Amino acid sequence: MSGQGDPGPFGRKRLARLRGRLFHLWFLLRRPMTLGVRAIVTNEAEGTVFLVRHTYVAGWQLPGGGVETGETLVEALRHELVEECNIEMRGAPHLAAMYYNRAASRRDHVALYVVSDFRQTGPKLADREIAEAAFFRLDALPEGTTRATRARLAEQFEGLARSPYW
């Protein structure tokens, strides 16, 4: 039996739904669009690309992350590569394409860069965010490489027509 201040299980569900709707509305007003960066870090001489496997989502992916308020795309890319890969860009990255990431949300966009002038300061060891990270030959990508990652690599290296969608 519910106490006087306890709304009971059905009331708690309604309150949880209301809180969720209010949070969603606040998010839409506060962040009407999200923007991310990803990188094809490539050693073209060896025919390899750098991929990461996160601890919180399945599959091997291109490294990257979100762009924070007040941060440029290249600044975001620079710090994500250091955090996820131990890779420092030496030269300017090349903006390959912009994508609409409709799978993530109706408001998410991703800038894809190609980074070929870099220095890796050491192997990337597993941490709270990255389970594994390494260079892979383009003709020997690891099992579990995501569909989007394979598509972006095919667009870049095999001449596949670029999709507007991530």
CATH superfamily: Nucleoside Triphosphate Pyrophosphohydrolase
CATH topology, by name, is Nucleoside Triphosphate Pyrophosphohydrolase
Helix content: 25-40%
CATH class wording: Alpha Beta
Count up the domains. Answer: 1
CATH architecture: Alpha-Beta Complex
| Mass-distribution shape | elongated
Label the structural class: alpha+beta
Distance, first to last CA: 51 Å
Question: What is the average of the pLDDT values?
Answer: 90
**Run of helices and strands:** HEEEEHEEEEEH
Unreliable sequence segments: none
Strand content: 25-35%
Rg for CA atoms: 20 Å
Largest sheet: 7 strands, mixed
Tell me the total number of β-strands.
9
Number of helices: 3
Task: Give an overview of the whole structure.
- It is built from three helices and nine strands, in the order αββββαβββββα.
- It is an alpha+beta fold and 166 residues long.
- The protein has one domain (33-157): Nucleoside Triphosphate Pyrophosphohydrolase (Alpha-Beta Complex).
- The strands form two sheets. Strands 1, 2, 3, 4, 6, 7 and 9 form a seven-stranded mixed sheet that branches. It has a two-stranded antiparallel sheet with strand order 5-8.
- The longest helix has 23 residues, at 8-30.
- It is elongated.
- It starts with 7 loop residues before the first helix and ends in a 9-residue tail after the last helix.
